[in-house]
Amino acid sequence: MSDILIPNFGESITAATVAAWHKHSGDPVAKGDTLVTLETDKVSTDLEADESGVLEILVPEGAEAPIGAVLGRISTAAGAAAAPEKEEAPVPPELEKTAAPETRV
Q: Cα(first)–Cα(last) distance of the chain, in Å?
């Protein structure tokens, strides 16, 4: 699990506002996905996912939070469970015929 934190933007900035979440709580995210846009009186920036998993939002859009605050979390254990499983490819009919013949007794 990894926390999504408000980064330190500089000495004079003490808080940031969550302008927009680009994913919803419970959504699967991949490393590098843009998760949230933060705004201060001097800067607007997007934060990306540090790892793949499932997003949990703790601070809603429009809320202000201090530098270092936890905005949300990415749960990797749930991410593995939420990831789609690969389907096995069907066996082509010509290969089915070449499978081991039935033995008759």
A: 58
